[in-house]
Amino acid sequence: MKISHNKLVRDRIPEIIRSAGQQPVTRVLDQGDYQVALLEKLAEEAREARQAPAEELPAELADVLEVLQAIANAHGLPWDQVVATAARKRTDRGAFDGRIFLEYVEELPGS
Questions:
Q1: Quick check: 43 and 13 in contact, CB under 8 A?
Q2: Spelled out in words, what is the top-level CATH class assigned to the domain 13-92?
C-alpha cells in the first residue's frame, strides 16, 4: 500500500520510516522548490500549533521555530538578523502583549 505525503520532512524521517519496516520514496528539492516547501511547511506547522492541546503546544511551537530558522537559512538571512528585526518591530509597532483585536476602522470626516 502506498500512502502519499508530498511534503517537506525533517532530515531523519526517512531513516525513522525505514526502521519501522517501511520504504520511504524521497527526492531532494532544488533551492527554489525548497523555499516554497518551507513556506508550505510553516503553514502546516502553524495549523498544528493552533489545533494542539496545551500539553502538545511546546512541541508544536518548536516545530514552527525550526521551520522559521530553516526559512531564514534558505534565504541567506542570519538568525540573529531576524531576531534583531523582530526586536526593532516590537519597539516601533509594539508586541502582542496587550491582546488588542482590531475590529474595524472608521473614517473620520475630513480625512
A1: no
A2: mainly alpha
